[in-house]
Design brief:
The complex is a heterotrimer of chains A (135), B (119) and C (99). Chain A has a single domain, classed as DsrEFH-like (Hypothetical Protein Ychn, Chain: A), CATH 3.40.1260.10. Helix content of chain A is 27%, strand content 17%. In chain A, strands 4-3-2-1-5 form a 5-stranded parallel β-sheet. Chain A is globular. Chain A starts with 11 loop residues before the first helix and ends with a strand. Chain B has 119 residues and is α/β, with parallel strands linked by helices. Chain B has a single domain, classed as Hypothetical Protein Ychn, Chain: A (3-Layer(aba) Sandwich). Chain B has 4 helices and 5 strands. A 5-stranded parallel β-sheet of chain B has the order 4-3-2-1-5, sandwiched between helices. In chain B, helix 1 runs parallel beside helix 2. The longest helix of chain B has 14 residues. Chain C has one domain: 3-Layer(aba) Sandwich (Hypothetical Protein Ychn, Chain: A). Chain C contains 4 helices and 5 strands. Chain C has a 5-stranded parallel β-sheet with strand order 4-3-2-1-5. Chain C is globular. The two termini of chain C are 16 Å apart. Classes of the chains: A alpha/beta (135), B alpha/beta (119), C alpha/beta (99). Chains A and B meet through helix 2 and strand 5 of A and helix 3 and helix 4 of B.
Chain lengths: 135, 119, 99
């Protein structure tokens, strides 16, 4: 079994199709596991050569905050992984400007370069997707 | 039409797995196909055969097993999420199988629609 | 596009954000605790009614009934069962679950 793809063979039936996958992250890290397990899905998704975009909005923007130190809560700090996404050819990271403004954050507070979009632009992006996975 | 379904919450605590089940059943009764039902996050707890609900309550796990048998549905439990939560082949209910996250992505590719049921 | 909302609007911002995102002509289905957003005489009723000018709002009747809210749905909100839920997913090319 191929561990990376969960036993899915990259046969022609699968590899011929390229769909637009959107991963919507609306939850903060650590308080619940959703952010971490969402990231695990994205890392696997990279092996499938699909058109992947990630959206961070609402408390999801906190996932990208700089300066996370988790030693004292005894949980793995997974924020450096967002910086590794580029190496997996996952380069479309979008952050909702309104969510950032509401939380007093700017692009300089984030650990990775992102594209900042307004709510209306985000809505267009979402509408154009084939598969939307929300966490 | 071919549907993929993702279940992200455990049974009983959250209504998500009930909604997912009733959605899947309705789809099948209307003649649609279910490509796969993928269990993730605490959703993996839908697959333990150790569950024993009170007699007057629905048996969520047994209900999935029956759905899988009646309609030959592929019920896949994410291996990483399952191991984290103590779900293994030894306590896996009939009709479920443990596999990787690639099964979810494949379902997104193969199915006409992928519907997420979560918190 | 179909949007589903499963949170009470009095507990989380899911419905509010969904209304921000739902484009003209799209559909919103309220399920689980999301059905509390489909009711008359609440603090969010006017907001929902306003949104109904641009989007079609549905609510899952079994969830409304389970909560004893069957006589309170806003006029014009379409009540569906699970079969109707399946139809909505089939009719729209993609689905966003506001979990």
């Amino acid at each position: 079994m191929n561990e990376t793809t969960g036993g899915v063979e990259m046969d022609e039936e699968v590899s011929g199709v390229v769909k637009k996958f959107l991963y919507v992250n609306r939850k903060a890290p650590y308080g619940t596991i959703y952010a971490l397990e969402s990231l695990e899905v994205v890392l696997i998704a990279a092996a499938f050569d699909q058109d992947v975009s990630l959206v961070f909005m609402d408390d999801g923007v906190y996932q990208l905050a700089k300066g996370q130190h988790t030693k004292s809560i005894n949980v793995k700090n997974f924020s450096p992984t967002y910086r590794a996404l580029e190496g997996y050819d996952i380069e479309k990271l979008y952050v909702e400007k309104e969510s950032m403004d509401a939380r007093g954050l700017t692009a300089a507070d984030l650990i990775v370069p992102v594209t900042m979009l307004s709510t209306a632009e985000m809505a267009d992006l979402m509408e154009s997707q084939d598969v939307v996975l929300s966490f | 039409m071919k549907f993929g379904i993702m279940v992200n919450e455990g049974p009983y605590t959250h209504e998500a797995s009930d909604t997912a089940y009733l959605f899947a059943k309705a789809a099948l009764e209307k003649g649609h196909q279910i490509h796969r039902i993928f269990f993730y996050h605490d959703g993996v707890n839908n697959s333990t055969k150790l569950t024993e609900p009170p007699q007057d309550d629905r048996n969520i796990v047994a209900r999935w097993t029956k759905l899988a048998a009646d309609y030959k549905i592929d019920l896949v439990v994410c291996v990483a999420a399952a191991l984290r939560r103590g779900i293994r082949d030894e306590n896996l209910a009939e009709g479920f199988r443990i596999s990787g996250l690639g099964q979810l992505i494949e379902s997104g590719i193969q199915a006409d629609r992928l519907v997420v049921f979560g918190d | 596009m179909l949007h589903t909302v499963n949170k009470s609007p009095f507990e989380r911002n899911s419905l509010e954000r969904c209304l921000d995102y739902a484009k003209k002509g799209s559909a919103i289905l309220l399920i689980e605790d999301g059905v509390y957003g489909a009711l008359k005489g609440t603090a969010v009723t006017e907001k929902v009614k306003k949104a109904m000018k641009n989007v079609t709002i549905y609510a899952l009747y079994p969830d409304i009934e389970a909560r004893g809210m069957q006589d309170r749905a806003i006029d014009g909100i379409k009540l569906v069962d699970y079969s109707g839920f399946v139809d909505l997913v089939a009719e729209h090319r993609n689905v966003q679950s506001w979990v």
